[in-house]
Amino acid sequence: MSSILTDRYENVKSRIINACRSCGRNPDEITLVAVSKTKPDSDILELLNHGHLHFGENRAKALEDRMESIDNPEAVWHFIGNLQTNKIKYMVHRVNWIESIHKKKALKEVEKRASEINRVVNVLVQVNISDEDQKSGCDPEQLESILAYGHDLKHTRILGLMGMATFTDHPEKVRPEFRLLRELKEKHQHMNGGGVDLKHLSMGMTNDLEVAIEEGSTMVRVGTAIFGERNY
Ligand SMILES: *Cc1c(COP(=O)(O)O)cnc(C)c1O
Fold it and tell me: 110: domain CATH number?
């Protein structure tokens, strides 16, 4: 059965396929994370029914509530927002990916909490690739020491990098930012080993997912194009 939501979702899937085709990539390499922030549970349930599994939230409390109310063992949950270390304990029992780690202190807390319950949590290190928001992500220069710290972790796997481009209606303008993230991944590939395996690049949203895929994204985080405009 078709609805506005599943039509929009299928449209995003087509955009991903077309973007892959235009640069010779395999669409299976791309994970679509449906960013459900502020939208009702019924939308998530509809997409789950439609076969979609990956969902993202950008606020700790929203994610916690969502994981509890949806309570579907198949769902894969991504935390993508500004991460306060003291909120990690509320998500670690269920979250699958924390994409917005930007300091060792947060890695240490994930490791502590995840080891207590013998879980493994996948994380990405968020890097500040735009110059408009100094708060989102570590500086590229800090990456090496954060990754080195990740080597000894047993319950925290660092599987790549995440970045948010400058907000713009002209996606070509942010190509250099995506390229920077890919270059940082390549540059730090020698850090692989132990708990570090840099294979993912989480970049690309509603406005710029094609450019992000052309620049090597393996995870696109899409809200508006799937769920419609948000009221904030
Ligand atoms: C809201 C959000 C998205 C999705 O943005 P859209 O432009 O609605 O697709 C992606 N990443 C993060 C971190 C977000 O907060």
Answer: 3.20.20.10
